[in-house]
Design brief:
5-stranded antiparallel sheet, 50% helix, alpha+beta, globular
Length: 147
């Protein structure tokens, strides 16, 4: 019995030692996405909160950019959130996408489809959203900044 308890304790210690937190270089990733997407503009806090009713207080840090020509349907968001409000932040981003879809629905159905098919992923406490015709290529860029 004593050997079993010691074996279990050793197993628990080994499992605990092997886990390490995933690191993500959000700023470097944002710069790389800017180069790949081309002609991106920063969506500032005023635009996000007033025009899109997005509560940026939910984010510890964020990089949210769209194409200079909004009818191109290129967009990305990298937002760092606290564990306590991760679900609320996800809901806020879903509402944000609904506004984007509504605004574009009368003018550009192709862009609406891109927003509807956006890629959403999570790396640690970062929520990442990608909109483009070839989201796989941009997702590959994101993966380069995960350590």
């Amino acid at each position: 019995m004593k050997k079993l308890i010691i074996a279990l304790l050793c197993l628990l210690m080994l499992c605990g030692c092997g886990s390490k937190e995933t690191e993500f270089d959000a700023e470097g990733c944002s710069k790389a996405l800017d180069e790949a997407y081309k002609d991106m503009k920063v969506m500032d806090e005023n635009e996000l909160t007033v025009s899109f009713d997005l509560d940026t207080e939910l984010f510890e840090e964020y990089f949210i950019k769209c194409a200079s020509n909004e009818t191109e349907g290129k967009f990305y968001a990298i937002v760092k959130v606290d564990d306590a409000n991760k679900q609320e932040a996800k809901s806020a981003m879903n509402a944000f996408f609904n506004v984007l879809i509504t605004r574009n629905s009368m003018y550009t159905p192709e862009v609406v489809k891109l927003y509807e098919d956006h890629v959403e992923t999570q790396v640690g406490n970062y929520l990442i959203y990608l909109v483009a015709e070839d989201t796989d290529a941009y997702l590959d860029i994101v993966k380069e900044y995960i350590k």
